[in-house]
Amino acid sequence: MAQNMGNQPVLVLSEDTERTSGRDAQSMNIAGGKAVAESVRTTLGPKGMDKMLVGSIGDIVITNDGVTILNKMDVEHPAAKMIVEVAESQEEEAGDGTTTAVVIAGELLKRAEDLLEQDVHPTVIASGYRRAAEKARETLEENADDVGTDDTEKLSKIAQTAMTGKGAEEAKESLSELVVRAVQAVAEDGEVDLENIKVETVVGGAVEDSELIEGMIIDKDRVHANMPKRVDDARIALIDTPIEIQETEADTEVSVSSPDELQSFLDQEEEMLREMVDDIKESGANVVFCQKGIDDMAQHFLAQEGILAVRRAKKSDIKKLARATGGRVVSNISDITEDDLGRAGTVEERVVSGDEMIFVEDCENPKSVSMILRGGTEHVVDEVERAIDDALGVVRVTVQDGKILPGGGAPETEVALTLRDFADGVEGREQLAVEAFADALEIIPRTLAENAGLDSIDSLVSLRSKHDGGDKNAGLDATTGDILDMTEGGVVEPLRVKTQAVSSATDAAVMILRIDDVIAGGDMGGDDEEMPDMGGAGGPGGGMGGMGGMGGAM
Ligand code: ADP
Ligand code: MG
Predict the structure, then answer these.
(1) Could you read off the pLDDT of 208-256 as tens digits, one per residue?
(2) CATH of region 20-145+406-421+445-522, choose from 3.40.50.720, 2.40.10.10, 1.25.40.390, 1.10.560.10
(3) pTM value > 0.90
(4) Residue (of 402, 494, 371, 497) closest to 91 by Cα position
(5) What is the dihedral of CA 111, 113, 118, 123, to 10 degrees?
(6) Domain 217-365: which CATH class?
(7) What is the distance between the alpha carbons of residues 401 and 397, in angstroms, rounded to a whole number?
(8) Annotated catalytic, 390?
């Protein structure tokens, strides 16, 4: 690309670089960000629609979950990718509210564009947005209510709000109960490690048949039909090596010259397997979870000893079992002792929807629970799992922070009102940005109304007037279109979902606004797996394709 310096063109960038600068760059980025936000807007809220995503190999996902939609979409545009990251950070930090965060980010960009057209400088907009965001978070915090870990009813409402409008909608009452019980079971001093909650999905049966097990479920069956189906007072060996004869060198050949020699060789192998099983037996174990294979002969010996054994258990399951049962994972079978064994009240193989599963219940450490999610088809089960994921996330966050807010657009309307007052005290053009921020937040109640088939202007006008009159909890009942006290109506969300949405949306919008130069196609260095061939014409680094590395670097 040539740039004129005086009369002499100076080449600073290679030929196949594309460069967009100034207002063009801003417009291009804003358009990209807005497009992504627009694509998920119709899914927001209880009346939001679902999306069917068809992958390149024809795989289908039907979902209402913002972050899932955005992750599955193959977004190429660099600014659009930054909006996708908003959803990801929202999911990570707050466990829910991904659509909300993305829709707010899109609206902040749209309002910023209007201001740019009025010649407000991007840095002024950026700093106005930042001030507004801080005030918004403050207001949200002031309006939040306290909730305790043992407040099952409120926590259950939190879970239900997160599941509203998802595939799990009809069963949300029973599912929310499972979610709250699970989180309460693993909560320890206000900390909740979701690793301790294992979610297994089973296709078959109704969503309502989903259940919570105080313990672990392993999606495996026992290796031998002669093993007991149920072991009480279980002492559990967790082994991460094969219960097989290890062929240490791949091409060792055993040459035998007579049937006797063969027999003695086989006897020797049998003897070694016998010893392994004896070692296990002598430790006192009556259940074995092996991460690797178990030889047929060893299976037979284990069955003879009345030991229930499972092979090829997942590594992650072995780890969880160790935590749940208080056992230690053993790599060398001859070293196994009683101290290594985990404990559980019962270990039992049961059939769930025609599938055998091993239930490990009444564990040493009860801070480990499992959920069996069921549903008629795979798509249903998958969407139930995503809904449960959101519900677990919000209940966890609520237990950690102990703060909740009403939903249904109430907090956004309240903050917008506060920000408009606050704007009066802001000097210069920044005031316009603060006002724009207030307007942008109202995209949430507006969209909730639109998606419910209501008149968004009427809804917004009534919402504003309620809040003007001091009714901080007034939100939109998406079913009836009435403006109600959302806390009384049981539509509540964790404070963190709202504060995080404000933060990540603002960060992304500000970052995009501050860009006035997009240089595409250069070798960004470092991030690409394969360095483009520097000499070759039309190498892989050319065009927008080269931006892939850039998205990852930001
Ligand atoms: P997100 O990905 O942002 O969580 P959702 O589709 O889950 O998107 O919608 C969340 C929005 O829906 C929140 O503003 C929440 O308060 C609102 N909402 C949830 N349930 C109800 C309800 N019963 N009535 C009104 N609004 C609701
Ligand atoms: Mg949600």
Answers:
(1) 889 998 888 999 999 999 999 999 999 999 999 999 987 655 556 667 7
(2) 1.10.560.10
(3) no
(4) 497
(5) 90
(6) alpha beta
(7) 6
(8) yes
- The CA 448 to ligand 2 mean position distance, Å, reads 12
Q: What is the pLDDT of residues 384-440, one digit of tens each?
A: 998 899 899 999 999 999 999 999 999 999 999 999 999 999 999 999 999 999 999
Distance 88 CA to ligand 2 centre (A): 13
CATH number, span 148-214+369-401: 3.30.260.10
161: how many CB neighbours lie within 10 A of its CB? 28
Pocket test for ligand 1, best of 71, 161, 450 (most atoms within 8 A of CB): 161
Q: Ligand 1 within 6 A of 98 CB? A: yes
User: Would you kindly state where each structural domain of the chain is located, as residue ranges?
Assistant: 20-145+406-421+445-522, 148-214+369-401, 217-365
Partners of 139 in the β-ladder? none
* Cα gap 196→184, rounded to integer Å: 11
- CA–CA dist 231, 347 (Å, integer): 5
Across the chain, mean pLDDT equals 86
Q: Whose CA is nearest to atom 1 of ligand 1?
A: 97
Residue 476 alpha carbon, nearest atom of ligand 1: 25
List the catalytic residue out of 63, 98, 201, 506: 98
Q: Which residues are close to ligand 2, an ion, with C-beta < 5 A? A: 96
